[in-house]
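Structure (tokenized):
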């Protein structure tokens, strides 16, 4: 775990190329904003943050402290507004700290701010930091502001612009925010990759899609840093609650702490994050479970992992049709109602492969209707092979750093091997700097080891230019192989499926991907499926699963597989 934390920390320190030297003063007061955790478990991080502030030559006149609305006070009041204390009296104090009432009154003129002292005093995102402000900055005034989760981007923009116009040059904005929640530390570190990237790069439209307890607070301080020309980040810490409380490994909280000082951010690019899942089918028995328990039922115990990722991919089995014909449990046909796509979108899955043997279970007409429904729900898809299978159509999806391809090798309509190789070669040649991820539907059902045919084709696809291969269709997790230092996951097993008869079909594997200019990191997340609901394995269960996976996989990956992280050098 310590090795992983160090790796992530070094990654971001490299990104910003900033060195934090404690004990030295800066040439001027250059801190405009910062983010700091509010869990007292992370006390030493909070101490380091305020210790860094007081080493500036000029201390802040006022700190505006943003906090999540942990107790949903805004909903109790039935009004959507920021929450603070009264600014009417000149002598308002909070836990012995003076409130900047003059500035607060100016902010309230242009923004909807509800006065509720009791809400402020009950919000630990505020109160947990007051003692540190009083200790390190006793002469600094404060303005505490709770930001409810339903506050819009436009409302935050208005508040920050008002602060920029009305506040002194020595005003500092602080977001009291914890990062990834309720996940094992390895999953938290994977999530934080995107959250920190969005924060440092100021990716305005992506703040809504990160896994933190108040994206609005982070957006607000980051916008203020830009308006003030203080965009150079100083990373103070990136740690996890397991570092302070080792026995609490299954559901952790991660902490990222940084200050923004005068200067411009670098234009270095940190990669998008990707999460790859196995076979998903939402018809037959799953349809019954959703009817009984609600449309979101299949995703409720895994959605925390899926949130806060750029691309979440799965292999979707069976067409989507408004009037699903009667299909018995004995038939090898699948079909789902359009309403299930609302749950898919809610879960944050945003890319599906239709390259499988069940996509055309209701014929070409069913496939066309499937595509129409996916477009309506704004879910991307690839791999729609038709009888004219010599011409691969709708097969690729592009992002800034990845290209996704999907192929089907299972009857009735298959992609020819020659066509697959040509498509991969053409894609690599036209996208030389991108990671090519190939999803392929192949192999034999319930076989725990790949077939010689799979392995032969995998070598050809890698030689053609693929960087990662993920397989589907066997419905069980198969081995992992390295071919020319590129990983092949022969089968990810089931993600959401109604196969409960065997323990192997109730298991699955999700693969997270992050990268730098030189390295590709793959994060392994074993899951189990209970009554149609996938969920992460416990720490002990995951250790057993990964150990068994390592035994049947490429021996060069023995140690990395047991740890659940594969780090590979990028060579092309």
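Design, position by position:
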């Amino acid at each position: 775990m310590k090795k992983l934390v160090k790796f992530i920390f070094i990654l971001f320190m490299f990104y910003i190329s900033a060195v934090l030297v404690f004990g030295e003063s800066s040439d001027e007061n250059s801190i405009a904003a910062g983010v700091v955790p509010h869990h007292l478990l992370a006390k030493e991080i909070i101490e380091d943050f305020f210790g860094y502030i007081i080493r500036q030559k000029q201390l802040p006149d006022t700190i505006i402290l943003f906090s999540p609305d942990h107790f949903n006070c805004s909903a109790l009041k039935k009004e959507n507004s920021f929450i603070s204390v009264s600014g009417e009296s000149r002598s308002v104090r909070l836990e012995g700290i003076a409130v900047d009432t003059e500035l607060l009154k100016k902010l309230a003129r242009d923004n909807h701010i509800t006065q509720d002292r009791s809400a402020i005093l009950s919000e630990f995102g505020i109160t947990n930091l007051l003692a540190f402000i009083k200790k390190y900055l006793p002469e600094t005034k404060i303005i505490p502001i709770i930001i409810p989760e339903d506050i819009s981007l436009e409302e935050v923009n208005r508040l920050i612009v008002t602060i920029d116009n009305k506040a002194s040059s020595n005003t500092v904005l602080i977001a009291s925010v914890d990062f990834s929640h309720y996940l094992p530390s390895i999953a938290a570190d994977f999530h934080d990759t995107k959250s920190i990237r969005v924060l440092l790069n100021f990716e305005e439209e992506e703040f809504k899609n990160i896994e933190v307890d108040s994206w609005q607070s982070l957006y607000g301080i980051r916008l203020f840093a830009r308006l003030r020309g203080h965009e150079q980040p100083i990373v103070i810490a990136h740690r996890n609650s397991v570092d302070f409380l080792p026995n609490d490994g299954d559901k952790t909280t991660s902490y990222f702490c940084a200050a923004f000082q005068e200067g411009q951010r670098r234009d270095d690019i940190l990669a998008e994050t990707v999460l790859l899942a196995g076979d998903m089918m939402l018809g037959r028995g799953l349809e019954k479970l959703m009817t009984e328990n609600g449309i979101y039922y299949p995703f409720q115990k895994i959605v925390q992992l899926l949130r806060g990722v750029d691309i979440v991919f799965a292999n979707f089995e069976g067409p989507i049709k408004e009037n699903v014909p009667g299909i018995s449990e004995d038939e090898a046909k699948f079909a789902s109602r359009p309403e299930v796509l609302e749950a898919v979108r809610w879960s944050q899955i945003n890319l599906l492969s239709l390259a499988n043997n069940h996509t055309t279970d209701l014929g070409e007409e069913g496939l066309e209707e499937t595509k129409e429904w996916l477009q309506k729900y704004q879910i991307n898809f690839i791999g729609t092979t038709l009888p004219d299978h010599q011409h691969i159509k709708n097969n690729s999806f592009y992002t800034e750093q990845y290209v996704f391809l999907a192929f089907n090798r299972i009857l009735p309509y298959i992609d020819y091997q020659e066509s697959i190789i040509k498509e991969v070669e053409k894609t690599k040649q036209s996208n030389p700097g991108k990671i090519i991820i190939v999803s392929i539907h192949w192999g034999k059902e319930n076989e725990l080891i790949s077939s010689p045919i799979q392995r032969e084709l995998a070598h050809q696809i890698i030689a053609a230019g693929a960087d990662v291969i993920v397989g589907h269709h066997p419905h069980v997790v198969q081995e992992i192989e390295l071919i020319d230092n590129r990983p092949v996951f022969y089968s990810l097993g089931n993600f959401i499926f109604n196969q409960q008869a065997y323990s192997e079909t109730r298991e699955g594997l999700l693969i997270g991907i992050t990268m730098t200019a030189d390295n590709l990191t793959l994060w392994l997340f074993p899951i189990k499926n209970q009554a149609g609901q996938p969920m992460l394995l416990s720490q002990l269960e995951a250790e057993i699963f990964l150990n068994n996976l390592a035994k049947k996989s490429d021996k060069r990956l023995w140690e990395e597989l047991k740890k659940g992280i594969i780090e590979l050098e990028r060579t092309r």
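Reviewer-requested clarification: The first strand starts at residue 31 and ends at 36. The chain has a mean pLDDT of 90.
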